[in-house]
Design a protein that fits this description.
The protein has a six-stranded mixed β-sheet. It has a three-stranded antiparallel β-sheet with strand order 3-4-5, covered by helices on one side. It is built from five helices and nine strands. It is of the alpha+beta class.
Length: 209
């Protein structure tokens, strides 16, 4: 993925890079069960689970849950030079900038129960939409595998989801349920050693004219 979780003031992040072999996933037949988003007695959407991995599988497939369990103001962390006219690695400037954006989160990865894996859709769910499986939904989409997908427990109340190299979503336990709170988009060049290594990386990544 790269150029990198962009801005210029903020461009939409590109899809994760995957090999052509991984780009098309052959789905197994979907499971018979149709998961539904539960509502509380007051009509509000209930927390899917206190267990983070169970919560995440439901959250990524439901626009209603993304509406309900996202912070009102989501932190967006990205390289400082995306927004300012500076060079990557320049020690005179910060590496990162953090903006706050209005929620809710709209993630582009899904959980396919039939294949028991997270996949990349590249599309945001529409309000009220629930995604069920590769076979049943969005058949015009070429789903990509996410070989680098990782769930990391940071603390008892904080988890990070790295869905591609450099792209991390953060969830925190607050008010009785998990909530999406931050998207962090990174590039390797941010950590380059100034000035020679940074210059070499910039020249390597420069587009051909």
């Amino acid at each position: 993925m790269t150029s990198l979780f962009a801005c210029a003031t903020e461009a939409e992040p590109p899809a994760p890079s995957v090999s052509p072999a991984a780009a098309q996933i052959s789905p197994k037949p979907p499971e018979s069960r149709q998961a539904s988003v539960a509502k509380s007695a007051h009509g509000a959407f209930a927390c899917p689970s206190q267990q983070f991995d169970v919560f995440l599988k439901e959250f990524v497939n439901s626009a209603d849950l993304q509406d309900t369990f996202s912070a009102r103001r989501i932190r967006h962390k990205y390289p400082y030079y995306w927004k300012h006219n500076t060079q990557p690695g320049d020690p005179a400037h910060p590496k990162w900038v953090v903006d706050e954006e209005a929620g809710p989160a709209r993630v582009k990865y899904r959980y396919d129960a039939a294949s028991e894996r997270f996949i990349w859709s590249g599309k945001k769910l529409k309000p009220g939409q629930r995604w069920n499986s590769i076979q049943a939904d969005e058949t015009d989409v070429s789903y990509a595998g996410l070989p680098l997908f990782r769930i990391r427990r940071v603390t008892d109340v904080r988890y990070e989801v790295e869905y591609d190299e450099g792209d991390i979503d953060t969830y925190e336990l607050t008010s009785g349920c998990w909530r999406f709170v931050e998207r962090w988009e990174r590039e390797a060049i941010v950590e380059c050693k100034w000035p020679d290594e940074c210059r070499a990386q910039r020249e390597h990544e420069a587009p051909m004219r």
